[in-house]
């Protein structure tokens, strides 16, 4: 059976595009988008909505400031709005890029599981930290989906918020007819790495766009079983490299101490490829959150495979441009403290928009509910495969299934995700704990430890979990770490 296509009723007008940016106070995504739009072939208006109104107003000021740059080729205007419905009214496209202050959330997602011996690398997508990020985000995204249904039911919705599979699923769970795409860089990074291998090992002149892969899985746990560069089959090369020096490097803490947490040494990737015969297509720092044995011995094991942990201090500083290398200081640009050069971010948002308006077809990886594109995973859960983007339509590509051991791993995480989604419909804390308990990282704990970890995380983040029914929870009542 061919997978279903996602399509809108009305085409996008590229000369008068209305974009609603939810999370418009973003310190990274919004500045990137503003620069991309200034260099695009589209014209229009962007409404920025954020619970942090000051941040949204700063980005609106920056967006209008960028329009005065001599290299800007498009005509855009920006405004910060205080009401969600006003932001969404009549929008052609909606961008979702949100998170709570990491000082109040992420730091707990990283610090508390570590006290129980779970040495997660990122804590953003799966594992105890990723699940709690989902639990505090899913109810918010259900409200976003309901507001989209009311104010712009035919809009194209682009979700960049993690955990992508949880929250994109929540959008469809609330509003099944939504035109929502979950987007992520990880497969793009794999294609870039494969292009680099083609250059270095085969002497080819290659870039990311030259590499085609057959990708399938769930976000941050995707797999490739075909890879070509300019038509050249890369599979024999990958099998050769996996057993050579490139595929067998090992590291210590001292080797990595000066590296960025985003450095990817591909050693987890090569090891999983050796074991299962299909190539993982996400960064090692994300893969190990799903393949838990790589972090079984804590920091030593993590570093052994070439991965640095994103620690709580890094997450806390991420909120402040002056303290974070990743966060964009747009005020420094506008005030002349930093030199500004208008440049493209390399994101695919505009490529997808161009495909939707008829400049296609365009093929890229997207997260959509499974309607058959992954053959041996149940229909409904959000999966990640390639999709063809053309006139007002996004159609996922049939990607096939997995070797049995890989399918078993992927299906286990799908079951965890679906359980949390089901629990969130009614705010059932105890059912959410059942999903939490099936997570691979949590299963390294005793039953009492997993209950206490759940209770401690819930207590630390209670102000962001108000949609959950605490009073009826037996699990929280029995947890020594939760004080109602």
UniProtKB/TrEMBL annotation:
PANTHER family: 6-PHOSPHO-BETA-GLUCOSIDASE-RELATED, ALPHA-GALACTURONIDASE. InterPro entries: GH4_Enzyme_sf, Glyco_hydro_4, Glyco_hydro_4_C, Lactate_DH/Glyco_Ohase_4_C, NAD(P)-bd_dom_sf. GO terms for molecular function: hydrolase activity, hydrolyzing O-glycosyl compounds; metal ion binding; oxidoreductase activity, acting on the CH-OH group of donors, NAD or NADP as acceptor. One of its GO terms (biological process) is carbohydrate metabolic process. Pfam families: Glyco_hydro_4, Glyco_hydro_4C. Keywords: Carbohydrate metabolism, Glycosidase, Hydrolase, Manganese, Metal-binding, NAD. Its cofactor is NAD(+); Mn(2+). The lineage of its organism: Archaea, Methanobacteriati, Methanobacteriota, Stenosarchaea group, Halobacteria. Belongs to the glycosyl hydrolase 4 family. Residues 215-440 form the Glycosyl hydrolase family 4 C-terminal domain. Gene3D superfamilies: AglA-like glucosidase (3.90.1820.10). This is Glycoside hydrolase family 4.
């Amino acid at each position: 059976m061919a997978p279903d296509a996602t399509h809108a009723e009305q085409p996008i007008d590229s000369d008068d595009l209305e974009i609603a940016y939810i999370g418009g106070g973003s310190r990274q995504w919004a500045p990137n988008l503003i620069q991309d739009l200034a260099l695009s072939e589209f014209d229009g208006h962007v409404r920025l909505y954020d619970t942090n109104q000051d941040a949204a107003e700063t980005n609106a000021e920056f967006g209008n400031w960028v329009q005065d740059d001599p290299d800007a080729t498009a005509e855009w205007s920006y405004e910060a709005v205080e009401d969600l419905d006003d932001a969404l009214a009549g929008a052609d496209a909606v961008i979702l890029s949100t998170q709570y202050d990491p000082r109040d959330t992420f730091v707990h997602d990283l610090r508390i599981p570590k006290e129980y011996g779970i040495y997660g690398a990122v804590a953003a997508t799966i594992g105890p930290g990723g699940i709690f990020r989902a639990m505090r985000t899913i109810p918010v995204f259900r409200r976003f989906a309901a507001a989209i249904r009311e104010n712009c039911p035919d809009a194209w919705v682009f979700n960049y918020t993690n955990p992508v599979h949880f929250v994109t699923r929540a959008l469809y769970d609330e509003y099944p007819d939504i035109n929502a795409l979950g987007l992520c860089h990880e497969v793009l990074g794999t294609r870039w790495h494969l292009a680099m291998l083609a250059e270095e090992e085969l002497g080819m002149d290659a870039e990311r766009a030259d590499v085609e892969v057959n990708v399938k899985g769930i976000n941050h746990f995707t797999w490739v079983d075909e890879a070509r560069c300019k038509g050249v089959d890369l599979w024999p090369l990958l099998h050769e490299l996996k057993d050579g020096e490139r595929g067998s490097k090992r590291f210590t803490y001292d080797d990595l101490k000066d590296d960025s947490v985003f450095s990817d040494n591909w050693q987890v990737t090569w090891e999983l490829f050796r074991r299962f015969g299909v190539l993982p297509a996400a960064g090692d720092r994300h893969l190990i959150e799903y393949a838990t044995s790589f972090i079984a011995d804590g920091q030593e094991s993590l570093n052994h495979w070439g991965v640095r942990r994103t620690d709580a201090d890094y997450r806390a500083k991420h909120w402040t441009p002056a303290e974070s290398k990743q966060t964009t200081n747009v005020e420094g640009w506008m005030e002349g403290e930093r030199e500004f050069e208008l440049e493209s971010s390399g994101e695919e948002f505009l490529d997808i928009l161009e495909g939707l308006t008829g400049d296609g077809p365009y093929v890229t990886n997207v997260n959509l509910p499974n309607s058959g594109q992954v053959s041996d995973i149940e229909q409904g859960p959000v999966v990640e495969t390639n999709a063809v983007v053309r006139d007002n339509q996004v159609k996922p590509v049939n990607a096939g299934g997995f070797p049995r051991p890989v399918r078993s791993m992927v299906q286990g995480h799908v079951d965890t995700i679906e359980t949390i989604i089901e629990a969130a419909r009614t705010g059932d804390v105890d059912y959410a704990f059942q999903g939490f308990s099936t997570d691979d990282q949590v299963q390294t704990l005793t039953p009492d430890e997993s209950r206490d970890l759940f209770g401690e995380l819930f207590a630390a983040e209670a102000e962001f979990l108000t949609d959950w029914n605490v009073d009826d929870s037996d699990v929280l009542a029995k947890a020594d770490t939760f004080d109602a």
